[in-house]
Amino acid sequence: MKVKVVTRILEANDRIAEENMRRFREAGVYVVNLMGAPGAGKTTLLERTILGLKGSLRIGVIEGDIAGTDDAERINNTGVPVVQINTGGACHLDANMISEVLPDLPLSELDILVIENVGNLVCPAEFRVGEDVKVMLLSVTEGHDKPLKYPLMFRESSVMILNKIDLLKHLDVDMNKIKRDALSLNPSMKIFEVSGKTGEGIDRWTEWLKGQRSQ
Ligand code: MG
Ligand code: ZN
């Protein structure tokens, strides 16, 4: 019985996600669903991405958090349009939450919309929100066991960004194992290695984003 209920919830979600996608296409905006665990560095990556795209692409952001507005305030300080969603306890964003805030964003004036999902490696991977691409951020500090422990996230994401590579020298983490296991789950996965702190590697990611936008 429980399985049936979950299936129906996901089907209803997919219908709203398709409607969101239609609205994004109409507005000509490319949408990134950015996922990752709490503390992986999603908001810092976003700040770097906004800086890297300045002058070439117009970006907007939806911040998803269980509570609080810290992340939206950080994005607001960069000067781009941002809307905060507080899920009030839910550990992922769904298509309906996104649909409700779309009127608060100048969609037709944007080239890229990044949706920062709630920090969680599990259920965000199950809920489409109408995105063009799912991007997951994994900090190398999270350890090299994550792909095999959270396979759905790695299967669903077209892109994996490995963050905090500046810390590798202090860690007993095998980054090659992370990449090997992620690719075994998802052979076409695109992988970037970055440091949100130093900015290393961010340009390759922003160049890739620009390329996606112009396709
Ligand atoms: Mg954040
Ligand atoms: Zn959840």
Structural features, described:
By secondary structure, the protein is an alpha/beta fold. It has a single domain (2-214), classed as P-loop containing nucleotide triphosphate hydrolases (Rossmann fold). The protein is built from 8 helices and 7 strands. It has helices spanning 2-27, 42-53, 70-77, 95-101, 146-149, 151-156, 175-185, 202-213, and strands at residues 30-36, 59-65, 82-86, 112-116, 133-139, 159-163, 190-193. A 7-stranded parallel β-sheet has the order 3-2-4-1-5-6-7, with helices on both faces. β6, α7 (175-185) and β7 form a beta-alpha-beta unit. The termini are far apart. Zinc ion binds next to loops.
Write a compact overview of the structure shown.
This protein is α/β, with parallel strands linked by helices and about 220 residues long. It is about 40% helix and about 20% strand.
Outline the secondary-structure elements.
Layout: H1 2-27, E1 30-36, H2 42-53, E2 59-65, H3 70-77, E3 82-86, H4 95-101, E4 112-116, E5 133-139, H5 146-149, H6 151-156, E6 159-163, H7 175-185, E7 190-193, H8 202-213
Parallel strand pairs: 1-4, 1-5, 2-3, 2-4, 5-6, 6-7
CATH architecture: 3-Layer(aba) Sandwich
Helix content: 40-55%
Low-confidence stretches: none
What characteristic shape results from the CA principal axes?
globular
Main traits of this protein?
binds zinc ion; 7 strands; seven-stranded parallel sheet; single chain; Rossmann fold; globular; binds magnesium ion; alpha/beta; 215 residues
